[in-house]
Structure formats: C-alpha cells, structure tokens
Amino acid sequence: MLDETTAPSLKRALNLPLLVLYGLGVTIGAGIYVLIGAVAHHAGPAAYAAFAVAALVMCFTALSYSELTTRFPVSAGVAAFVLKGFRSHGLSRAVGLLVIAMGLVSAAAIASGSVGYLRHFIELPPPPLLALVVLAMAAIAAYGIVESAMFTAVLSTIEIGGLMVIVVAAFLIEPEPLAAAVTIAMSAADPAWWPGMLAAGLLAFFAFIGFESLANVAEEARLPHRTMPLAILLTLGISTLLYMMLAIAAVSVVTPAELAGSPAPLSLVFERVTGLPPWIMSLVAIMATLNGIVVQLIMVSRLMHGMARLGTLPALFGYVHPGTRTPLAATAIAALLVYLATLALPLERLAEATSLISLVIFALVDLALIVIKLRDGLPPEGTFEIPLAVPAVGFLACLGLLAAALWL
Hints:
Helix 1 packs across helix 7, helix 4 runs antiparallel to helix 5 (89-118) and helix 6 packs antiparallel against helix 14 (328-344). It is built from 16 helices and no strands. The chain is mostly helical.
C-alpha cells in the first residue's frame, strides 16, 4: 500500500456541469451510436421500449450508487463499496477486477463500433486503425483530469446536439411517431413479444452503462456529497429521454432491418431525415465513440489506482505522476488491454459480455448498501439517503434481468 503522506494525490477539480457531461459522455458514447441497429434488430419498432425497460432496471441501482458515493467518495468506487459492506478484501478485489473487466470490454466495444464510422475518412485495416484510436485516447486520459474532462465535455455537447438534430428532423418528417409508439407498447400483452424485447433490453442495458463510472471520479469532484447524486441521476435521466426519442425517431424513418444491417446506423438515419451527406453524422459519431473510450480509460485507471491504495492491487497501479496528477501506469496498461480485447471479440459479443458483468456488479452494489444500512444504521449527516426498499428492488431487478439474459 502506498504511503498516503508523501505520494501525490488526485486533483479535486470537477464541478457539477463537468461531472454530468462526463457521465453523459461515457453513457451516450458507449451505446446509442454503436448499438441502435442491434437493438432494432431484436425489438423492431418497439426499440424505444427496450431502452425504457433497461432504464427502469438501472434507476434503482443508480440511486444506490448515489448514496454510496456520498458515504465513500473515493476513486476505488465499487471496490470500496463492497469492502465497506462485506468487510472482505478478497471480495472487494474480485468485484474491482470485474469492474475493470467491464470497463475494458466496454471500451473495446466502443472502439470496435467506431471503426465503421472512422473508415468513412481513414482507409486503414481495422487493427492499425484501432491501435491509433486507443493510443490517442489513452494520451488524453493521461494528460490531466481537468483537460480530459473538458475534452469529454466538448464532445458530449457535440454528440448530444447531433442526436437532437436527428430527433427533430425525424419528428418533422413523421408527425405522429408518439402515437405509433403507444400502439406498439400495447403489444406487450402478447407473450411472443417478450423474448425479442428481453434480448433487445440486454443490449439496450449496455447503452446506459456509464453513470457508475462517476463513482470513480468522486475523489476528484468538488463537494462530492452534493454533486455526485445530482450528477448520477441527471446522467441517467437525460440519457433515457434522449434514447427513447431517438429510437422512436429512427424506426419511423428507417426500417429495423436497414438499421441492423448498417455498419453506421445513425449516419443512415441522419442522411434519410436531413438529405445531407452521411459523413457529417459519421463525424459526430466518431466524436461520441472516442469520448466513450476516453472516459472508460479514466474510470478503469482510477479504479486501479484506488484498489492499489486499498492494498488490493500492486502499488504500481497507485502511482500518480506529480506533473499530470494522473495514474500513468494504470492508464497505459488499461489501454493495452482494451486494444487486445478489440482484436479478440466482435462488437455484439463485447456488448453482451459488458451487460452481463454489469448486472452482477450492480446486484452486488445494491446488496452492499442493504448490508451497510442494516448494520450501520443512519449515515453521516449530509449523506444522500434512500429507503432500504430501493436497493432491495434494484438487487432483485438485476437478478431478474440476469436470469432472463442467461435463459435467452
């Protein structure tokens, strides 16, 4: 374990707007640009409902994270939550490694998804193109937390703007998409509707993964007891609304089969609704996917750093460069592992693996909060607090979706 009195510390510099844009950057960049076609393939015109189902499952655990980040605002995040809840270094290490695996696989999925958009501009085979992408994003993540957070804030603003252009233009072309969405939702009474919806929901669940990464920058947040719950809940709420509107808009102008068959589905939708060349949306999508890679690398490297400070990973991962105030060794190793994962698995398998790992982690986080609440009683004054029923429902919801996913 590192000597806390002499080692450089992380810089506490992130305010609420930067935290929300960071959360939106990892969440939106991680999912919708890459997986809207795959979700539409399974759910058809009801793709928006798959995002609603995934968000409903996610909201209970998001509230658990909100309380835990105010109780324990440290970069170790989930590893610290599990350690405090179960008082087991072994379980803490195992869960921390699971989160690291999730972050690495998620970043690899985003990187793989970016290739379809990047090849509109750069004619390189996927392996060297992926190497360039991952190396460049690792350099940004290593440069400094304020600089990388500003980078993600700018890209998040651009990517959200691009999605809103699609939504507004599609609603102008098809004036009654919401009425059609209500009609589609009535199909839920048909049992044959649910297998495809559950498969789509598992993929859509991937599109929401990202809010939990905020827990790993709590140690770099200003006034974390106030800003962290707001940042987590705003990230989830904005993402849900945007995803549902975009899914309704996309399937109203492009068939689910076309979306599923396109390597750059949102570029296809953009071209259809605006008449502008698809490379414009491809450029926005590139920014979104690059953003997702950066924030996942930040999350993984901070978790490695935090676990090293807890003594559950080698001290090398806890080293903070005195100039950049970032964990350089952890960032470099994370980038290498992301690149290797992009070469090993296809996009949809990476997304499915991320979702399954996430469900296990989220269930453990909910359970840890239940244990802490029952054992320790009232939290310290000023802590964001939720009723015991919330993590209990979150735990059962995660187990239910996990069982459905394994059954499918």
